[in-house]
Structures are given as structure tokens and as C-alpha cells.
Write a structure and sequence with these properties.
The protein is 10% helix and 45% strand. By secondary structure, it is mainly β. The protein has a single domain, classed as 6 Propeller (Neuraminidase), CATH 2.120.10.
């Protein structure tokens, strides 16, 4: 049996090398830079499509003690510190996308920070209270939040500037999206009420909300990126971002994770992970979200990234080496320092490198 396992690892390594060589030959020469750190590999087999979507929780007492909270398909949620050390593991089922929200007020007046995710095995939304900097999570929904979409995928929170309410968005394989209002419930739990649904033509996944402009961005894997005006509740005003799909030679499907890089309340960037050519596309945050360019994460202190699913970004000072913030991305083909394949994980990139690249784009 050990010999069979070694043989399987060898075959996998050859396939990865062949895949990377083919990709390198087909890919445009985007600028690239390396990651500063990586999380420990997830606790599933090398061949598993496992790590999926990261979220960043900023510790209000000590930002250097902030957390990376990530989903692991067919397992649950894992929590890491900024050095990549695993702090907690929660075998919750089959989560996909995940997000963090701050200062939700319970019935007793206490304000708490939340983690929410889509959970595919039960087709539900799960909500957790972030209890400590040690990454302790506690389920807090008052009752199961069951979705009607066909297999929940993408998920994100949205705090409205108009009514100050916290909402959750979830989408499914059938292209349907739901918006849920989160409300304080008895026993200091959280309830949810579905307030809107709408449809895109094919399977979506990554989503991110921009509270300043009242927009929700939705990545449709084989199409591109859509923008929904969330605050117009009377009409689903959806527009397509130019140069986010086949009209852009630098984008090769699938479009996967989305995140915002705010540089002020109203300025910044929208980032998207592009699986087909192992890149990350950059759009202006302001409408009409002009495409600016793309970059890659290459080998450096740790190995580079390929076929990224989820991404998240925090522009705050999180301590050395992330004084300007951090970008966290899932790595679909993780490699150990000795060159051997490893289970998937998440890579941490300094925003100092990314901001320098973006400044060059704007010049």
C-alpha cells in the first residue's frame, strides 16, 4: 500500500508539471509577485478539491492577531493566524463561500462579529459568532436558514447605508440568487427573512458587496461579472461589466472569487480570480468599473498559485509583513518546499506589493 501511494503521488506530480508547462505556454505575460506566507495545508487528501474560500477577520484589540477563516469542501471551516498556523477546525459539512460581518446587535444590546457561509450538504446558510482571537466560533442562527436555490455556492454579507440593516446573499448552480435580511431573535440568536430573488443565465459563484455605492458584484463563471443595484428594491437593476468576459483576451473562464480593495470610502479596485489562466483581474471600483490589467502570484518565499477559487483582501495595518494589508487567495495546486505536491491551502500576499503594481497601472 505505501508503494501504491508513492506511485499515485508521482503520477500527480507529473500531471501538475505537465499542466503548469502547458499553461505557461498558453498564458499572456502578466506581471507577477510572490506571497509572504501560506497557511498549513488543509487536512484532506492531495487529490481533493478541498480549500475553497477565505475571509479575513480583523481583531479590534490587536490587528496583528487577526484571523484567516477558510472553507474546506466536504469537511468544514478552518481558522488560521496570519503566520498560517491552524488554530481551529470545525467539521461542519460541505461549506463553499464565506464572509465576515462586524457589529451585529443582538436583542440584549451586545454587538458581535459574524462569520457566514453557504452549506451545500443541507442547502442552507450557516451563521457563527466569532467569540475570540483564538478563532472560536459558535453557531448563532435561531433556526435553519434553508435556501431554495439549486445547491448553494456563493455567499456574502451586505450592510446597507440606507437602512443600516445587515443582509446575506447566496447563489446557486441554477443561476438564482437570494437576499436575506438578518434580524435579532429571541435568546440572543439571529433570524433571517428572504426579501428578494433574481436570476442570471448560468452558474455563478463569487460575490462581493460595496456598501458605499450600494452595489453587489456577482461572478457568473462562464460569462463574466454582473453588478446589481441593491438599494433599488423595486427593480433588479443588473448591468454587465465590460471587459469581464469573452470581450477581454486577458480573461479565460472561469471567473471565480471577487473582492474589493478600497483605498478610501469611495475609491479603490475590484479584483477577480480567473481560473482559466491562473491570473487576477483588476477593475476600477467606481462605475463603470473599467478593466485596468491583470497579475499573477508566482513562486517566491512559498510556491505560487494556480486555479484560484476564493479571494479576500484587508487594507488595514495587520503588523509585519502586512503593514499595508493583506490579500488572501486559495491555491488549487499547492507544492511543498521540496517540490512535492501537498493538499490545497491559502496564500497571503502583502498589499505593499499589490499597491505598487496598481500604482503602475494608473500611470
Amino acid at each position: 500500500m505505501p508503494h501504491l501511494r508513492l506511485f499515485a503521488y508521482l503520477i500527480l506530480a507529473i500531471l501538475i508539471l505537465t499542466f503548469c508547462e502547458k499553461k505557461a505556454a498558453d498564458q499572456p505575460p502578466f506581471p507577477s509577485f510572490g506571497a509572504e506566507a501560506e497557511t498549513e495545508p488543509v487536512r484532506l487528501a492531495i487529490e481533493d478539491d478541498a480549500a475553497d474560500d477565505p475571509s479575513i477577520w480583523v481583531n479590534p484589540q490587536d490587528s496583528s492577531q487577526s484571523l484567516i477563516i477558510g472553507t474546506v469542501k466536504h469537511f468544514g471551516i478552518e481558522v488560521y493566524n496570519l503566520q498560517g498556523k491552524r488554530l481551529q477546525s470545525y467539521p461542519t459539512g460541505d461549506p463553499n463561500n464565506i464572509d465576515v460581518a462586524y457589529s451585529f446587535e443582538l436583542n440584549n444590546g451586545k454587538k458581535i462579529d459574524l462569520v457566514g457561509c453557504s452549506e451545500r450538504s443541507k442547502n442552507e446558510i450557516y451563521l457563527y459568532h466569532i467569540q475570540s482571537a483564538a478563532g472560536e466560533l459558535q453557531a448563532i442562527q435561531a433556526a435553519p436558514i434553508h435556501s431554495s436555490v439549486d445547491e448553494v455556492y456563493g455567499f456574502c454579507f451586505y450592510r446597507s447605508r440606507v437602512d443600516s440593516q445587515l443582509y446575506a446573499f447566496v447563489n446557486g448552480k441554477n443561476g438564482q440568487l437570494e437576499q436575506w435580511l438578518l434580524q435579532a431573535a429571541d435568546s440572543n440568536k439571529i433570524g433571517a427573512k428572504k426579501v428578494r430573488t433574481f436570476q442570471v443565465s448560468s452558474q455563478p459563484e463569487g460575490m462581493v458587496a460595496d456598501a458605499h455605492y450600494g452595489f453587489l458584484y456577482l461572478g457568473e463563471e462562464d460569462k463574466g461579472i454582473w453588478r446589481l443595484n441593491v438599494e433599488n428594491k423595486a427593480k433588479n437593476e443588473v448591468s454587465f461589466l465590460a471587459k469581464s468576459g469573452q470581450d477581454n483576451p486577458n480573461i479565460t473562464f472561469d471567473v471565480e472569487g471577487l473582492c474589493l480593495y478600497p483605498t478610501s470610502d469611495s475609491t479603490g479596485y475590484l479584483l477577480a480570480s480567473i481560473q482559466g489562466n491562473n491570473s487576477y483581474a483588476v477593475f476600477e471600483r467606481k462605475s463603470p468599473n473599467r478593466y485596468l490589467g491583470s497579475f499573477r502570484i508566482a513562486d517566491g518565499r512559498v510556491d505560487g498559485t494556480a486555479e484560484t477559487d476564493g479571494i479576500d483582501l484587508c487594507p488595514k495595518n495587520l503588523g509585519n509583513p502586512f503593514q499595508e494589508g493583506v490579500l488572501v487567495v486559495q491555491d488549487g495546486f499547492n507544492v511543498r518546499p521540496d517540490g512535492k505536491p501537498a493538499p490545497q491551502n491559502f496564500k497571503l500576499i502583502s498589499l505593499k506589493k499589490l499597491s505598487a503594481f496598481l500604482n503602475d497601472l494608473r500611470q
